[in-house]
Design a protein that fits this description.
Elements: H1 3-25, H2 37-47, H3 49-63, H4 65-91, H5 94-104, H6 106-125
Helix pairs in contact: 1-3, 1-6, 3-4, 4-5, 4-6
Amino acid sequence: MKTSIKLIHWIPRVICILAILFVSMFAADAFAPELTIWQQLAGLMMHLIPSFILLALLIVAWKWEYIGGIIFIVIGLGLSPFIFMHNYNMNHSVGSSLVVILAITFPFVVAGVLFILSHFMKKKVV
């Protein structure tokens, strides 16, 4: 495999892993001193459900790049309006809400495009 194909093969996977870890950081708000350890663990598991779903989708994309790429693009673009409105209602700042969109959903769109690009580059070589 050429270097450029290897690079395009690994970059979307690394982006997805980092983005999933970033989304997982938000699960830390499940911890509160007034809750028991079991309540905190239950809350943590509930907060990690989106990360588990994204991890499952990454596994799909790892095997079937074209399908995974489409899924990640749809997730990134589909969730953007909801995340934007949620943040806008909290802080009433368009700029701040756009930064949140760029941080949370844009990496999944980029990874999706790169998964599809990787699929076609490998198909072209074979």
